[in-house]
Amino acid sequence: MAASEENGEANLNELLMSNVALQSQYDRAISKALNTARANWEREQTQQSLARGQQTTEEQERALNEREQAIVMRERKAGAVTTLGQRGLPAELAECLDYRDEERLTASLSTMENAFQAAVSKTVSERLKGAPPKAGGGATYTNQMRAALGLK
Prior knowledge:
- By secondary structure, the chain is mainly alpha-helical.
- Among the domains are: 10-48; 62-123.
- It has four helices and no strands.
């Protein structure tokens, strides 16, 4: 086969050398094929470049959004710690609040404050109660005094 391919190439070269019009037509066809292949390749490269650029842009936007959300969360938490301090509540309660949006933060802060105040009130009430007075304790004291004085 190699010998027949060489003969075919030699015959084509001889034919093109002997016929200038045929060589010109052959050159145009080859040039057109090369130009078409080059244009297709350049179009593919452009599309790939645009796709990579779009992916990069989307990734950058996603990263920027994540950083923005983290900053907003930190700002909300700092505001909540300040609010807790203003309301006389421990700053540690800030860890229990919902920071997803302002409405949820406000609601969870109010709920937390109410629950904390209720717990404090209950504890204070229980500690102040003490033991109830004994029934008839006053009469016993009077009886003890009378007995001590020798009175009945």
